[in-house]
Design brief:
heterodimer, A: alpha+beta, six-stranded antiparallel barrel, 35% helix, 14% strand, B: alpha+beta, Alpha-Beta Plaits, 2 domains, 5 strands, 24% strand, globular, Rnp2-like_sf (chain B), rRNA processing (chain B), tRNA processing (chain B), Pop5/Rpp14/Rnp2-like (chain B)
């Protein structure tokens, strides 16, 4: 070993040491514990169970350690393999397929998903429809109908298109309707006004929604003799109904007339091709002008009924506001527009403006195919320079042909004229939600089937399936309703049911019109021999001289007795009857309607001739309660006796008479049956059964209901029954109870003759579960 | 628990005779230090030295030694080190003196200091080289210690055996 150190050796030794030191200094200490690897200011107690407190580089290691320790703890327990529940296994992979599968049984409207989130849904007529919202909204909906705007989706209406020449069409339609019955025999048939406005060959006619549409019926029918073509456009056209005096302002804010585009080259979209045609553009300009004038009118009810306006509009999604705004009427009143507005209100829309390209199949398909999807629209919105500004009308896409049809409100009667007027908006299919959401964002209230019933009630108009007992759909509806009521009744325990026998109510769940009509025929003919008395006659002999008359109905009466009852719809007869129903000292009807009818006063001869003309018929009446009381469905309408009228004449606010309670004979029979079933042997039971003269086997009897066949409906109670109420409720528009129903014509005439003139038209109304009669005034609205 | 703190003294043992350096042993060094403390500070010093005193690292090639003392009395014990004149190991007496370079709270700080000290020494040696070969060797040494983890592995293994890690 050399004595002296050399520089090289020194350097080498030092370098070696340095590297050793470096290695020692940089390597972590012996403990590989992950928590020690953190600097002291980052260590936390909770990292043992919450590894998210560690920085990412250490998290994996910590997770591994945690799992190891957990497993060590749980090594004894065995974790069972959890298979998915049946519901989780059957969950969709493909949402669209799932929706289509559900739609096979009941068709979904385009706005179904929107409704399903907010409404109670019901499956009716092969569709899934919203009945009423899940939130309490009866009064807000009524307020919307009477002062602002209410929206409904009526796309389930069948739409049938009739194509052909005008006179042939009219000839065919007159087979279905009758001039005397007036414009609407079918519901919604705007026969007169609509036919008059359109002179083109195509004639769109909407018929009532018919639950009996055959599934196998073809889409197009062709008539060989008249050359008419019938197309079934169900679910091709979407229909939204806006009800209320501000519906025009809602439409004015939502829709904007389409901007004209100048495009020289041809494009597959329909609007540019359209714009090239001069006459089309002129028409569009006229329609736009009418639409602009429409914005300024005060209330929707001011337009003449049956107005139709065709229009082409921009995509309403482009002008969607960010928040819901309530559509307000346009306050700006220009002098120049005043003239145009007056013209619009008096004469309606000019004839050619009711054309719309909605009816051309090629245009409809083009529009539906070229709709901008929501995704695309949102992408366009995100690309805007200034977020929240309006999207431009865009290229030639997004021009939709629509049809606006004016719905008149209450047209009949003296009070509340044009209540519930509104507009119907018809769109091509595929554009349902594109129009629905902008409409909802303008502050309309949305309602379902329940409100359409109330709408008809307030308008005092018969509502389709409920109040048409003479047509097959109506009778089927009544049977279904009866089954429902009976089911609910049976579900209650016997002690909690109302005993309709004791209340003297023969038919609380349905109205036997046929029986009523027949009985009144007999009563009237018998009563002709005996006018004095309290109106209760015995039916000793049956009359065989029933003369059938075909009144203004599509139902043809049977040739042999007993004939079917019918509903009186002849306008002139209705006017006559209406004038007879009111006291002669009452103020005259408005001279605009039926002034001539007041000429014929009520007398025996007039009544006899009227009765001869309309036998076996019932008439639609509206009843107003005079003081207290809320009428219910299937309430009885009865004739007041002379004493009742005297009492009423003295003090009009008096309460009506009371019905004495009836005795329930069937109760004892049911009890006997129960007792015998408990104790007796089969031989004893048969003895009991043969002993009683009961026609019905005890199993038919339901406690509290009259078994079929019913005894005489007219003369069962202390007051003679004239008819029944089909819809009754406290009416918010009038402020007292109102009921709508049918009464027998012969009975009504019989009653009116015998009443003192100043109290003419006063009847009694009794709810099925009550013994109390209320005084009502009967009105026939024409 | 309150932390137990120690002080680590980085000392360099300078011997006159180069060959004796390799004979050094950590037990010999610790014995020498204890005797020196006992001579200087008496029983009290000897008692203090017995608690937590040990030689943590000894590099025979370079003469670097890490001594650990308890924190409360390291100054006292430090003051005894200059009085060491020779180390006795395997019958031989090696005259030397202790040169304290650094006091650190942990071994790691002493190691870091040592790295910096050695590199500075090497840098100082470079201009004083007499011939090319030395220069080259020094340059190579400098390069090797600037890389982390580089260096002769055989030499490292030898040196590691003398290291005692662990806190």
């Amino acid at each position: 070993m050399p004595n002296h150190i050399t520089a090289g050796a020194f350097a080498r030794a030092r370098a070696a040491e340095v590297s050793a030191m470096l290695k020692a200094a940089t390597q972590t200490m012996g403990s590989s514990h992950v928590f020690q690897a953190l600097p002291k200011h980052m260590r936390r107690r909770a990292t043992s169970h919450n590894t998210k407190r560690l920085p990412r580089r250490l998290r994996d290691v910590a997770n591994r350690m945690k799992r190891k320790s957990l497993l060590a703890g749980l090594k004894k327990k065995k974790e069972p393999v959890k298979s998915k529940s049946r519901k989780a296994r059957r969950r969709h992979g493909n949402l669209l397929m799932e929706f289509n599968r559900r739609q096979r049984k009941n068709i979904w409207l385009e706005t179904h998903i929107w409704h399903a989130k907010r409404f109670h849904m019901v499956k009716k007529w092969g569709y899934c429809l919203g009945v009423r919202p899940t939130y309490k909204c009866y009064r807000p909906c009524y307020r919307a109908m009477s002062s602002h705007c209410l929206l409904q989706d009526l796309s389930y209406y069948c739409c049938i298109e009739l194509k052909g020449e005008e006179d042939k069409l009219l000839a065919a339609l007159t087979q279905l309707t009758c001039k005397e019955a007036g414009m609407s025999n079918f519901r919604d048939l705007r026969g007169r006004a609509f036919c008059g406005l359109k002179k083109k060959k195509k004639e769109p006619v909407k018929s009532k929604r018919d639950g009996t549409r055959l599934p196998t019926s073809p889409v197009t029918w062709r008539s060989s003799s008249t050359g008419l073509v019938i197309n079934d456009l169900t679910m091709e056209i979407i229909r939204y109904r806006l009800i209320g005096p501000q519906s025009h302002s809602v439409l004015a804010e939502t829709l904007e007339a389409a901007t004209v585009c100048d495009e020289l080259k041809s494009s597959p979209l329909w609007w540019p091709e359209h714009c090239k045609d001069r006459s089309n553009m002129k028409l569009h300009q006229q329609q736009t002008d009418v639409f602009n004038v429409l914005k300024g009118i005060y209330s929707t009810g001011e337009l003449p009924p049956g107005t139709v306006l065709g229009l082409t509009v921009d995509d309403p999604r482009l002008t969607l506001p960010r928040q819901k705004v309530k559509a307000a009427p346009c306050v700006n009143q220009d002098q120049g527009d005043e003239e145009k507005r007056n013209q619009l209100m008096l004469q309606g829309v000019p004839l050619q403006c009711c054309q719309s390209f909605l009816w051309e199949r090629s245009v409809r398909e083009n529009v539906t195919d070229n709709k901008i999807s929501e995704q695309e629209l949102n992408r366009m919105r995100s690309e805007l320079l200034v977020p929240g500004s309006r999207l431009g009308p865009g290229p030639q896409q997004g021009r939709v042909p629509v049809l606006l049809v004016h719905q008149p409100g209450k047209q009949v009667g003296d009070e509340l004229g044009s209540w519930g007027a509104g507009w119907d908006l018809l769109l091509p299919k595929g554009w349902g939600m594109a129009f629905w959401v902008p409409l909802v964002y303008r502050g309309v209230r949305v309602a379902g089937l329940h409100m359409s019933l109330k709408h008809s009630q307030n308008k005092a108009a018969p509502h389709f399936p409920h109040d048409y007992p003479d047509c097959p759909a109506g009778s089927r509806f009544q049977e279904e309703q009866e089954a429902e009521f009976l089911d609910t009744f049976r579900r209650h325990p016997p002690a909690k049911r109302t005993n309709y026998i004791k209340h003297g109510c023969l038919a609380p769940f349905r109205c036997p019109w046929q029986q009523l009509a027949e009985e009144w025929e007999l009563l009237a003919t018998d009563g002709g021999a005996d006018r004095k008395g309290d109106g209760q006659t015995q039916m000793t002999r049956k009359s065989h001289e029933v003369v059938e008359e075909v009144t203004s109905q599509q139902n043809v009466a049977a040739a042999s007795p007993p004939s079917c009852f019918t509903v009186l719809r002849n306008r002139r007869s209705l006017r006559l009857l209406s004038s007879w129903c009111r006291p002669p000292t009452c103020r005259r009807q408005r001279w605009g309607r039926g002034a001539a009818a007041a000429a014929l006063p009520l007398s025996d001869s007039a009544v006899t001739s009227f009765h001869a003309a309309h036998k076996m018929s019932v008439v639609w009446v509206r009843l107003t309660l005079l003081s207290k009381g809320k009428p219910e469905a299937h309430a009885m309408l009865c004739v007041p006796t002379a004493e009742d009228l005297k009492l009423f004449g003295k003090s009009p606010e008096s309460c009506g008479p009371q019905e004495p309670p009836h005795k329930d004979h069937y109760k004892s029979r049911i009890n006997r049956k129960k007792k015998s079933a408990k104790t007796a042997t089969p031989s004893q039971e048969s003895d009991h059964q043969t002993a009683s003269t009961d026609l019905h086997s005890p199993s038919d009897l339901i406690l509290g209901l009259w078994p079929d066949p019913l005894p005489s409906v007219a003369s069962h109670c202390s007051r003679v029954t004239l008819g029944w109420v089909t819809q009754g409720d406290f009416s918010l528009s009038v402020g007292r109870g109102e009921a709508l129903g049918f009464v027998s014509v012969s009975g009504l005439l019989h009653t009116l003759l015998k009443q003192p003139p100043e109290l003419r038209g006063t009847l009694l109304l009794r709810n099925p579960a009550s013994l109390h009669y209320r005084f009502v005034r009967v009105n026939i609205d024409v | 628990m309150v932390r137990v703190k120690s002080r680590y003294l980085l000392c360099e043992i300078n011997v006159s005779d180069r060959r004796d350096l390799l004979k050094l042993d950590d037990r010999a060094v610790s014995g020498t230090v204890k005797a020196a403390v006992a001579r200087t500070h008496g029983d009290y010093g000897a008692a203090l030295c017995s608690i937590r005193f040990c030689v943590k690292y000894l590099n025979a090639h370079t003469g670097i030694v890490f001594l650990r003392f308890p924190k409360g009395c390291y100054k006292l014990l430090w003051s005894a080190l200059p009085f060491i004149t020779s180390i006795e190991c395997c019958g031989r007496i090696i005259p030397c003196f202790f040169n304290c370079l650094h006091v650190g709270g942990t071994i790691r700080t002493c190691q870091k200091f040592l790295i910096r000290y050695n590199t500075r020494q090497l840098h100082r040696m470079l201009p004083k080289c007499k011939n090319e070969e030395e220069k080259r060797q020094i340059q190579k040494a400098i390069l090797s210690c600037s890389l982390t983890g580089g260096g002769d592995e055989a030499l490292e293994d030898e040196l590691e055996s003398e290291e005692e890690d662990g806190e």
